[in-house]
User: Which sequence fits this backbone?
């Protein structure tokens, strides 16, 4: 799969792979001279893996973080340990990520179907 400019897509694979659109990846000179940074990232907190906007939040232990689903969550120490994210994905965050990133409508699941039993 490639973009219309012939560049292979970037993937956000912390909890599951979601192809990133051109609007989803940007260059940041604050992280080592221009390395790509995902606009939206995943963070486990309050019993779910939530997505957040890196332009408006950074996860920190004990600090509230607004997720893409609109819920404010608070990561704990164990939520910050890579490889120990076993909680369910927040499907509202997943859907909102896809909407904000400009996914085609057929790649944006209906909210009712994806959130059954989830936040």
Assistant:
């Amino acid at each position: 799969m490639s973009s219309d400019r012939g560049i292979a897509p970037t993937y956000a694979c912390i909890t599951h792979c979601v192809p990133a659109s051109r609007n989803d990846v940007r260059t940041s000179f604050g992280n080592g001279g221009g390395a790509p940074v995902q606009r939206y990232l995943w963070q486990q907190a309050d019993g779910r893996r939530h997505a957040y906007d890196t332009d408006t939040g950074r996860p920190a232990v004990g600090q509230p973080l607004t997720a893409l689903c609109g819920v404010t969550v608070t990561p704990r120490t164990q939520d910050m340990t890579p490889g120990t994210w076993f909680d369910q994905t927040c499907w509202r965050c997943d859907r909102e990520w896809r909407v904000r990133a400009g996914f085609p409508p057929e790649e944006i699941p209906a909210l009712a179907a994806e959130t059954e039993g989830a936040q």
Remarks:
- The first strand starts at residue 10 and ends at 12.
- Strands lie at 10-12, 18-20, 25-28, 35-38, 40-45, 48-53, 65-66, 72-73, 88-89.
- The longest helix spans residues 91-100.
